[in-house]
Amino acid sequence: MEKITLAHGSGGTLMHKLIDSLFMKEFDNAILRRKKDSAVFDIGRSKVAFTTDSYVVSPIFFPGGDIGRLAVYGTVNDLAVCGARPLYLSLALIIEEGLDRNILEKIVSGAKDAAKRARVTIVTGDTKVVERGSCDKIFINTSGVGEIYYDGLSLDEIRPGDAIIVNGSIGEHAISVMASRESIDFKTKVKSDSSALNALIARALAISKGIRFMRDPTRGGVATTLNEMVERRSFGVAIDEKAIPVSAGVREACELLGFDPLYLACEGRVIMVVSKKDACKVLGAVRKDVNGKKAAIIGEVTRENKGKVLLRTSAGGKRLVGMLSGEQLPRIC
User: Fold this and answer.
1) Pairing of strands 61-62, 271-274
2) Which residues neighbour 77 within 8 Å (Cβ) at sequence distance 6 or greater?
3) Burial level of 315, CB count in 10 A (0-12/13-18/19+)?
4) Strand, coil or helix: 106
5) Mapping DSSP to helix (H, G, I), strand (E, B) and coil, where does residue 180 land?
6) Distance of alpha carbon 301 from alpha carbon 321, whole angstroms
7) DSSP class of residue 219?
8) Quick check: helix, strand or coil at residue 182?
9) Beta bridge partners of 312
10) Residue 217 main-chain phi, psi, to 5 deg
11) Among 181-190, 261-270, 281-290, which stretch is predicted with the lowest mean pLDDT?
12) Which DSSP string do the residues of 196-263 spell out, in sequence order?
């Protein structure tokens, strides 16, 4: 009998197979079938976005963040990439018996600060305490509701020739958490990119109607996000290795440990697909935001290689980039 493994939650191939073969099959409906970061639907005359996510990161404090901040930012970003203005969040805590109260207070304080920065309000929640050993210190579930103010972001809007933009250097969250967990001291320190992107996204959407689609490259990284984008589609994607921002610390860690930065999770990055005509304008707007100073155009949508992601390497070669196949780094979000 097939057993569920950590790889089934990696964001890669096994997780997509599990979702398609079980959850999509059993809960099938028109909203779920769109496979967006948030469900988008009408309530009366309003169009809203609704999303939920759970956070089990280990360790619960890491350079650049903590589980409380991560939970708030993750849900805010899932709403923002759907063209929604994040408004209200829930915060549900599953706490392991024996957790120090001062640790819980630090996590709640982090969530409060993150909500203030993202301009969202935590309006409901839940608290459960489980027996010692039943969870790892604390797990958090957040749900969020937002109001759609930019309608039409969809895979169906993507056209060959569109540019692909990322708002900053990739892989910093995954390496930060991994280095903290394993007590690895790299020469160049890496800090998580965990942050709220709703202000950056609003800035970009305000100056262009040519933004077709957005997704944040969390589990599975940029490679998996781009593969999700082209899956069963009549277009492909080509990206340039030289153009993809990778910090010195992440590059050092990848060379030492054999990771590919394309598969490392980010928690403050967004992939934008933008019309060729508006690409430079959107890039300029993104770079004006504190979370977008290292933004870059990393490739384009192509008529060739339908359903595939092609990497033009720094050495002048080409190689296909698949979806994450296993579990590269567990418990990073």
Assistant:
1) unpaired
2) 37, 196, 197, 198, 216, 267, 268, 270
3) exposed
4) helix
5) helix
6) 14
7) T
8) helix
9) 240, 318
10) -85, 80
11) 181-190
12) --HHHHHHHHHH-S-EEEEE---TTHHHHHHHHHHTT-S-EEEEEGGGS---HHHHHHHHHHT--GGG
- Dig out the tokens for 105 from the structure: 């207070």
* pLDDT the model gives residue 186: 85
Give the whole-number percent of the chain exceeding pLDDT 70.
100
Measured between alpha carbons, how far is 207 from 194 in angstroms, rounded to an integer? Answer: 25
What is the token pair recorded at 330? 């567990």
- Which of 224, 222, 219 minimizes the C-alpha distance to 174? 219
Buried b (16+ CB within 10 A) or exposed e, 215-247: bbbbbbbbbbbbbbbbeeeebbbbbbbeebbbb
* Residues 236 and 302: beta-carbon distance below 8 Å: yes
The model's pTM: 0.96
Rg (CA), the chain: 19
Alpha-carbon span 333 to 329, nearest angstrom: 10
Are the CB atoms for 266 and 190 separated by under 8 Å?
no
Binned at pLDDT 50, 70 and 90, residue 9 comes out as confident
Q: Largest Cα–Cα distance in the chain?
A: 57
Q: What is the dihedral of CA 251, 179, 323, 80, to 10 degrees?
A: -100
